[in-house]
Amino acid sequence: MTARERTYLGVPVSKPRAAFFEFTSCEGCQLQLLNNEATLLDFLSLLTIVNFREAMTEASDEYDIAFVEGSITRDDEAKQLKAIRGRAKTLVAVGSCACFGGVNQLKNRFNDLAWVKEQVYGSHAIDTREAVPLSAIVPVDLSIYGCPIKKEEVERVVTNLVLGKSIDYPRYPVCMECKANHNVCLFDLGEPCLGPVTRAGCDSWCPSNRFGCWGCRGPAEAANVRQLRQIMHEHGFSDEQLLDRLECFGGFADYVTELKRAAKE
Amino acid sequence: MKVSCNIKVNHLSRVEGHGNIRIRIKDGEVLEAGWDVVETPRFFEAMLVGKLWENAPWICGRICGICSIGHTLASIRAVENAFGITPDRQTERLRLLLKHMETLQSHILHLYFLAAPDFLQLGSVLPLIASHPEVVQRATRLKLLANDACDIIGGRRLHPTRTVVGGFTMLPEKSQLAQLKARLEAALPDLTKTAELFQTFTLPDFVREAEFVSLKGKNQYPFIGGELVSSDGVVRAEDDYLQMTNEYMVDHSTSKWSRLSRQSLATGALARLNNNFALLYPGAREIAAVFGLQPVNHNPFMNNIAQLVECVQVVMDSIAITSELLAGSWQKPRQPVVPKAGRGVGAVEVPRGILYHAYEFDQAGRITRADCIIPTSQNNANIHYDLIELARQSAARQKPDAEIQRLAEMLVRAYDPCISCSVH
Ligand code: SF4
Ligand code: SF4
Ligand code: SF4
């Protein structure tokens, strides 16, 4: 879509003012947006970018849509997020860090921040708190899942948002996409995979590269982790390996608690 | 008139992560100047404790979105070194090719999108889309080539899926490699044009002597593993990386700092080039010569040019690697992994400098201790002392405030810092 054609069904479409922010993250999700060379310019033409610190110096506090990457791990971040929420009409959580806490929440599992700090910084004082998703601090209007996000999905979500169309996500698991891609199932190749319980939408990104899914997009509707546990056991994988995958990105937090309890029994 | 100014840049733009510059000059005297890192720490080294070995590369790639491939490869190397696995030639070649393409992607992103706007007195690359479309198209063409290459070798352009301990989960199609080779050959003229563009820029004239730390190449320009070297003559084995980094904490930074023989050290493209100049392809050395870049160069702004030279280097080497791979037949992509107790170190040159991952394992292959030392954390002290010296020289030359701020921002950007990575 070029600047000239910015209409939908003959109706001119307004260009919302968009701002990008990042909290505790690897900034990879933002990079995914810049990484989409083939369609980057078309994508940019949908929005008026007023704030994108990683790419530009100019900045403005007036925006309609805030795209927020990263999880919240310090009080100043929580405060800043609330201010962003106050200004934006629509707040979009971008990537697993923002949606679930992402890999950052792996430090929470020790339930011992003092030990965590000491491991990395020794006796030097350092400020941090449990890593939480954006939704733990402010209401979130839209979530774009993935670690990293899939650029095609961002473009679809953003286009629908700008055009005022409804935004829906697949409810079925990654396995459906994997089968449609005619992949050999990794379990048959001797590799564990979280595809049966993970929300689709990534086009089975990892299994299509012969690497098992680690559940970065969180649970599919009616995810049956108990059944997956059985499949894992049948193929010789341990609860520990299942747990490693379930707890990696934070999307399966409830299931992790349940599995930890079950594994003890 | 003597210079007085109070410069504060909070959350410097066009760098990865969050850092602040402060410079206070009164009547020509520098009262304070410095570089503060305010990024929130993520505690990767703690996260890994208790995890099985197979988690390490997958989790550690997430230290950095820009150099996730480098982190993944350093992590894999550390695990393989601990378990006594030596990659075969095919794996070694494919990893290097993947690494090269990340270097190209990152350097092009930095040169065109982050650094060039400074030289053109612009706030971002966006105005160039209308005024100089061919420049933006060239930049995106080069970046796209590098990213596509990462997709076909690593599975995706960031947080790769095919790179595992022992090798690769699957291999690219030969036809994809042949296509890549053709695109690499076509990229060389684009790089010549890039050099012509940078020749129209004036690099600030600033020198502060530094100690440069990098891998030490034997018979090729080094990127993955090997001895460590400094321009002050220190040479250490990969396993002894701690003797090169000597980390310590300062109050105004959430990132650790490093030093070796001096107050601070520098790592990155300029360091690699200063320490391994003779190992560059002649074509890459020619580009260096155009800019008068020869070892040991102590102008940190020259890091931009060193990145440009490395773009040529990695494209030329990638052509050689693809030719070699195309000439042979595919061997099996991965070897079996048997965990054992012990320690392993992986040193890898990522776009911003030398990166170390080190892990200790118990018998089951569970991580008992992890350590990751990031290029930008090694550079932070050097950036800080450079800023002080830049403030001093600018005050002496009676530069206007706006000019001092511009130079200070450009100086930090020249290091292409990856701040969230440095506070991992
Ligand atoms: S979700 Fe993943 S890719 Fe995105 S910022 Fe977080 S760690 Fe990086
Ligand atoms: S490889 Fe994974 S996603 Fe694909 S069918 Fe098997 S379990 Fe499902
Ligand atoms: S396959 Fe699983 S881990 Fe990979 S991108 Fe999709 S949801 Fe994430």
Provide an overview of this structure.
The complex is a heterodimer of chains A (265) and B (424). Chain A has ten helices and seven strands. With 265 residues, chain A is of the alpha/beta class. Chain A folds into two domains: 161 residues, NADH:ubiquinone oxidoreductase-like, 20kDa subunit (Rossmann fold, 3-Layer(aba) Sandwich), CATH 3.40.50.700; 91 residues, no CATH class. In chain A, strands 4-3-5-6-7 form a five-stranded parallel β-sheet. A two-stranded antiparallel sheet of chain A has the order 1-2. Chain A is globular, with a radius of gyration of 20 Å. The N and C termini of chain A lie far apart (57 Å). The N terminus of chain A is likely disordered. By secondary structure, chain B is an alpha+beta fold. Chain B has 14 helices and twelve strands. In chain B, 46% of the residues lie in helices and 15% in strands. Bound molecules: iron/sulfur cluster (3 copies). The site of one iron/sulfur cluster has 14 residues of chain A, from helix 7.
Offer a concise description of the structure.
The complex is a heterodimer of chains A (265) and B (424). By secondary structure, chain A is α/β, with parallel strands linked by helices.
Topology:
The complex is a heterodimer of chains A (265) and B (424).
Chain A lengths: L6 E2 L2 E2 L4 E6 L5 H7 L2 H10 L1 E5 L12 E5 L5 H13 L2 E5 L1 H5 L12 H9 L20 E3 L6 H13 L10 H7 L44 H10 L4 H9 L5 H12 L1
Parallel strand pairs in A: 3-4, 3-5, 5-6, 6-7
Antiparallel strand pairs in A: 1-2
Helix pairs in contact in A: 9-10
Chain B lengths: L4 E5 L9 E8 L2 E9 L6 H4 L7 H6 L7 H16 L5 H31 L6 H6 L1 H22 L8 E2 L2 E2 L5 H26 L11 E5 L12 E3 L4 E2 L5 H4 L19 E2 L2 H8 L5 H9 L12 H25 L14 E9 L2 E9 L5 E7 L1 H22 L4 H14 L4 H4 L2
Parallel strand pairs in B: 6-9
Antiparallel strand pairs in B: 1-2, 2-3, 4-5, 6-7, 7-8, 10-11, 11-12
The complex binds iron/sulfur cluster (3 copies).
